[in-house]
Protein 1
Amino acid sequence: MLAYYRQMNFTEFNKIKESRIIQKNLIYSDLTESPYGDYLCIDIWWGTIDFLLVGPGANKSNPLKKLIFGGVPLDTDDIWFDFGPIRYLEPNEVQEISELLVKISPEVLIARYDTASMIEHQVPPDIWWTENQSEVVISIKSCYSKIVDFFQKAASRKNYILAYITA
């Protein structure tokens, strides 16, 4: 399963919110096509980033929980989504998350990395057994840096962010 983000202005957001066709195209078409806003795929690292930022369980009081699993569903009919409906974050939520992410460096995030804990809590992706942990750490740091940059840009533009997870 892969996680995706798209950032867009109010006009673009409303077009997507009102059109099931565009919503389906977000899932099933070329992800880089216009007019769907700037795009970021965080690949298989969504569960890892969530776990390292907020810890085990559904700690919904932590605003960073919204990064992966938060936001308002665009539609409650999740028939063609693998992990729930497309969700959106409003500009004020994007700003809040961006401000929190900037305070956590990739090095601080990686300091929370614990293979045994990842296995115990069945954190996706299920690759914690791999012998080359340095590659895993590099991938996590790279992914996290991209997320921070993406949210900073969206916050500076006062954009909405769509988030969704697909196979």
Protein 2
Amino acid sequence: MIDQDDPLAGRWIKSATTSQQCKPAGDNRLRVNVSKRFYIAQFIGSSLNIYESAERVVHKKAGLSFVMFEGNRHQLRAPNDLGRIIDMALSKGVYVNIGGIVLDNKWRSKIELFPFIYITTKAALKNFQNEYGSERPPHPDRRKPKKK
């Protein structure tokens, strides 16, 4: 496992390469309220790192699910959204690691998708634009353009 500091996001990046996907793990705490296990998808500019996981209590507001992570509220996103941002990242040539598996364009048979939160910073987005030009970075709220 590689632990390194990400100066753009201000947090440690945990990453590794394995032959089997590491699924989101719990933290062995008993919770009274409903909780979910999820990945932490961290966009770093030239890579999408989805190695860390957590378990948190789920809060609902306006039909959306949120979790508290590192003192901030993040939207808990659906597994299908994870597949969409992986496709977006790979189409732009961004390195993607999910649960220890380095992905290529034939990733769908290699992994299982889980809920996730998406973390990025303005500095990481700027790094992406410096490296890839004016292209828009992968983001779960971005939909693929409709074909005419």
Protein 3
Amino acid sequence: MLRYTLPVHKFAAQPLELALVPTTSAPQEPITDDPYNPTKITVYAPGPDSALRIAERHLTLLHARLALSDPAAVPRTAPDVIYAEARARAETLSSEQREAESRFSIHSDDDWLRLFALTDVMRQRDELTT
């Protein structure tokens, strides 16, 4: 696994300046320098294409979370709306329903965002078991 650090501008990774560092550590979650205004993101991936995909997906999630928590901070995008709707739905479910739903597979391009919204609610309510 390789560790890539990419510059970020307006929640978009800039692939032209990929900084690569070989690592023997276990893959980790993507890390940004600032979740509210990231200027760089570090991801673990087997190659540059997957690093860019992972970075873009994580930045989309950060943007959606920020748009929900502080609507004036960023202009809303379609993924922001999907995340907000999924989060509102997850909050109306019981703990058992959330757990059952968390086991569904990802079938569409937007399902990963819905799953993160569900996971965020479960984490907030201490319902996740590792």
